[in-house]
Amino acid sequence: MLSKNVELYAVVEKHRQSSVRCHGIATGALVLAVSFPLSLFAQEATQSSSMIENPACQDCRSFHLEGDAKAILKQVLHVYGVDVVWAHPSIPPQRSIRFDLEGADLSTAGYVLGIMTNSFFVPINKHLALVVANTPENRSAFSRKSVAIIPVNNVVDRKESEVISRLASTVFELPGASLHDGLLTVRGDPEALDQISRTAEHLYRPTPRVRLVMRSYLVTSTNTRKAGIEFPTKFTFFNVLTEANKLIRDNASVVEEIISEGLASEGDVLTIASLLIASGYAGSSVLGNSSVYFGGGRTATGVQFDSASVQTSLQRSKLERLQEQTLLLADGSSGKLRFGQRYPIETSRTSVTTSSTSSSSSTTTPSIQYEDLGVTLETKVHLSAEGDTCLELHQTIRGLQGQKANGIPILDNQEFATSLSVPHNGSALLVSDVSQSETRAIRGLTSAVPTESMLDKTTTQLVIVMTPYVLDARSDR
């Protein structure tokens, strides 16, 4: 609110024949005015020609007027149904102008009158406007003020904040701008606020972000193959006639019955031995087991061996575990993704011995350090002008080697670094062999032939599928 009263001339249509006296203060668009006697507005402008209506538009008028500037301004605006209130000082008294305008609407006529009379208009309501002399002081006092809160991103220090405040006060003539928590608050006319808003949006647009979706697959493939022939390893050779006589001697009573019944003659050794085997009396003899015979007569020989076997089998298993992680990264920033666990490793021991006159005791305290085992993937993103996403990848695989030095496990480290470009709506595939083992799994004669089908294989692979999605920061605002 202004600190001094502003005296104004007021015209009230319904009391046009009387004098109205008011007092008031002008603030922005709200005006409470004092008026002087209405006889000051009674001067008529000398017309060089009458007003002509434009048939093309009801709101368009043509004017050919010459005379006092105040009278002409009042008369022209009254044609459009607008009365005026004069701010003091406004137009210098007794200033003569010539006003010729064809087919003009209210906006055009007011614009031309403002230039000719060096004044501007402040609307009070639909049918009343305030006429003020066009000076910087009056512009600051009478112009409508609006407040705008403009997001300003990427401001990191106080020096940059001061630059923004000076930009608002010097270039756009908006003093009193304040910046807090990334929000610029300014007061001024709507046109200037729109200009500084568009400028700040262009200069301090948010940094584009990338939503990097990583789908990880831990694939464990196990192939077990067993194939081969196991031949007999023990052979027993014997004389058939000798073993038959031994079998007959061991079963003399049964042999007498066979002879008495006439099943075989007394000297037919092989026939009697066959009948004893068939009757189940050769349990402890080699003749009672499976054998191979060759030769004849007294040289007939038998061969006995243990069993032979053939093995063939195939087993295959596959295990997949799926995980999905999302990294939200700004352009030029990096992030880390870890798969695995923290493993405690004893690095040292501290022993403390306490003793007294009667006894002593010792306490050992281990020092533990936790190491990250598994896969660590560090990613840095860049957005190219062509719309592709450039990824800088650094992968580290750490695990226990299986051996120890002085009781401390040995860690196995593997690192991989690369840079790649992923097109829009594309994905990148990264495969790493975590472990692989092979074991022979056959027996017998064919084990001497090392073929691929004779191995047990266990392979573990880590497959990472990375899909970047570019987020337009301006659309997220």
Brief summary of the model shown:
It is found in: Membrane. This protein has nine helices and 23 strands.
The fraction of residues in strands falls at over 45%
Q: Determine the number of helices (DSSP H or I, runs of at least 4 residues).
A: 9
- C-alpha geometry: elongated
Poorly predicted tracts of residues: 1-56, 444-454
Strand segment count: 23
Total domains, how many? 4
Structural class: alpha+beta
Main-sheet strand order equals 1-6-9-8
InterPro entries: Bact_Secretion_Sys_Channel, T2SS/T3SS_dom
Protein name: Type II and III secretion system protein
Subcellular location: Membrane
Family: Belongs to the bacterial secretin family.
Structural write-up:
The chain has a 4-stranded mixed beta sheet with strand order 1-6-9-8, with helices on one face. Strands 17-13-23-22 form a 4-stranded antiparallel beta sheet. A 4-stranded antiparallel beta sheet has the order 18-19-20-21, with no helix packed on it. The chain has helices at residues 69-79, 106-117, 136-142, 158-171, 190-203, 240-250, 252-260, 269-278, 473-476, and strands at residues 8-9, 26-27, 30-31, 52-53, 61-68, 83-87, 96-104, 119-125, 128-133, 146-151, 178-180, 183-188, 209-230, 235-239, 292-294, 301-305, 309-330, 334-355, 360-383, 389-405, 408-422, 428-440, 455-471. A hairpin with a 2-residue loop joins strand 20 (389-405) and strand 21 (408-422). Residues 1-56 and 444-454 have low confidence and may be disordered. The chain contains 9 helices and 23 strands. 16% of the residues are buried. The chain folds into 4 domains: 61-142, Phage tail protein beta-alpha-beta fold (3-Layer(bab) Sandwich), CATH 3.55.50.30; 146-205, Ribosomal Protein S8, Chain: A, domain 1 (2-Layer Sandwich); 212-223 and 312-339 and 373-471, no CATH class; 232-307, no CATH class. It is α+β, with helices and mostly antiparallel strands and 477 residues long. The chain is elongated, with a radius of gyration of 55 Å. Residues 348-367 are annotated as: Disordered. Belongs to the bacterial secretin family. Residues 315-441 form the Type II/III secretion system secretin-like domain. Keywords: Membrane, Signal, Transmembrane, Transmembrane helix.
